[in-house]
Amino acid sequence: MEQNQWFKDVTFYQIWTRSFADGNGDGIGDLYGVYDKLDYIRSLGVGGIWFSPLYPSPNADYGYDISDYRDIHPDFGDLRQFQRVLDKAHRLGMRVLMDLVVNHTSDEHPWFQESRKSRNNPYSDYYIWRDKPNNWDSLFEGKAWTYDEERGQYYLHLFSKKQPDLNMDNPRVRREVREIMRFWLNMGVDGFREDVISFISKREGLPNGLPIPAVGGMMHYKDGPHIHEYLGEFRRVAEEYGAVQIGESPMTTVRSALHYLTGETKSMDMMISFDHMLADCIGTEYMHLPFSLRRYKRALTRWQYTLAGRGAWNVLYVENHDHPRIISRYGSERYWRESGTMLAVSYLFLQGTPFIYQGQEIGMTNIRLRSIDEYRDIASKQNYERFLTFESPAKRLRRVHLSSRDSARTPMQWNAGRNAGFTAGKPWFVVNPNYRYVNVEREERDRHSILQFYRRCIALRSKSRALLRGSYREFYPLHPHIFMYERVYGSAAYLIVCNFRDSETVITLPPAYRDKPLQLMLDNYPGKDGMSPVMEAYEARVYRTKR
Ligand code: NOJ
């Protein structure tokens, strides 16, 4: 009997609260707004919510720089309001995951404030201090070391200067982490998404890395020497509560993910993969390439095949607060509805637990801002600066437009009214001007909208054992335009077919499906019988049959 496997049968919705819904009119999304929208979230058919960080934070990295792990950011509400949201979510049948960010804190966290005071205070060893820095770069801005006048030493920060890395080798720091976990689990949360968790154990002596910008030091801090030991300690706390843990590990390979997911070193229920988000870029979204369906399929299929049968389970997603909008990347704003719905089909029926990021379900697209000063995200600004010497401002701005995390952070578009219904005040960030058409209210009324299509996909998935737990097999992996795969469980089989081209494509069914009666369960071209060998631009179909 599988215990505590509920996460395999639900779809999650990710909330980046600041831009979700403003309940108190100050222009910033909050937990009052979330409370009012819980019924909407439930109406999508989802069974869980992941909140990006809700804690007090100076917002150097919008919440991923935490200054107090046991409270709620006053912009979002307070602990009482969080409890109300949690209880209501539970009443509606949705579990709730918090974001656990323990690779680093904010430099405004009291631990860091104490730590910088001297070399021998109770917190002096909570962070990583050195007299001489090594050659590592930060992933956000310049060198990974900043000199602190007060202490007279350098501290390590793999992200921004305002995000000093915790010294996880210190047992007291690990005890703090366990206590933070308990604090939220005692309130009733159901688990954690764990931020850059594969970076928490650094190689002893902090040796120099390769002379490669940004990532040259990564070999010494990713999947580090004590990672599984430390995560094992956290796992024991999670297990006491039956909590789910989802690990984030940038640039992870599926092989390394297996160490977190299986065997003696199992510490996570799921690991977030990045490979399939690199189908239109190299390394990060900053270095663009034309979208390649083959790269997308190769990455997805590699994770599907490698995890299957090993007791490991995939996270399925195409958007979150760190990536630009998927229609603008892998789809087409011209074929907005068609490509938005097709992209949903392309990943929602894979094996794993799907995540939907706020606004994805209505087809929100990238924002185009006129100047870099209008962007808010530290990584976007850095991206603009990095290419200062060899690209024109127009080119750099276009790069930011294509890659910015801010595209995922514009306010949620609820209706065609003022500020897209996000706030009665002045929104903290620009609302995408397409809100008059792309909004929840209009899409609720349109039977064929992206929103209604997401609901149909989630409903179909959640009532089919084959789609939830069935095996996965891909057909025609080298086809440049078609993504075709099956999910099979017992005698039930589903065939999923997506055309990634902005024009018609002729398909050939795999031999096993040619002489079978196929039942069309979903098609994003309303009114079609789905039996023609010609797929329309960005058409997606889901067939059911018997084996
Ligand atoms: C990953 C988070 O998703 C991202 O938003 C953040 O900037 C980095 N980790 C650093 O915490």
Can I get a quick summary?
This protein is an alpha/beta fold and 547 residues long. The protein is 28% helix and 15% strand.
Topology at a glance:
Blueprint: E1 12-15, H1 31-43, E2 48-51, H2 79-91, E3 95-100, H3 110-115, E4 129-130, E5 145-148, E6 153-156, H4 171-187, E7 191-194, H5 227-241, E8 244-248, H6 254-261, E9 270-272, H7 293-307, E10 315-316, H8 326-330, H9 336-348, E11 353-357, H10 378-386, H11 393-403, H12 440-445, H13 450-462, H14 465-469, E12 471-475, E13 482-489, E14 492-499, E15 505-506, H15 511-514, E16 519-523, E17 534-535, E18 540-546
Parallel strand pairs: 1-2, 1-11, 2-3, 3-7, 7-8, 8-9, 10-11
Antiparallel strand pairs: 4-6, 5-6, 12-13, 13-14, 14-18, 15-17, 16-18
Helix pairs in contact: 1-2, 4-5, 9-13, 10-11
The structure holds 1-deoxynojirimycin.
Secondary structure class reads alpha/beta
Identify the overall geometry. Answer: globular
* Architecture (CATH level 2) name of the largest domain: Alpha-Beta Barrel
Counted by DSSP, the helix tally is 15
- The CATH class designation of the largest domain is Alpha Beta
- Proportion of beta-strand residues: 5-15%
For this structure, the CATH topology of the largest domain is TIM Barrel
Strand order of the largest sheet: 9-8-7-3-2-1-11-10
> What are the segments in which pLDDT stays under 50 over at least 5 consecutive residues?
none
Number of domains: 3
Average pLDDT, to the nearest integer?
96
Tell me how many strands there are. 18
Helix content: 25-40%
Radius of gyration: 23 Å
Largest sheet: 8 strands, parallel
- Cα(first) to Cα(last) distance is 26 Å
The fourth-level CATH homologous superfamily of the largest domain is Glycosidases
The ligands found in this model are:
1-deoxynojirimycin
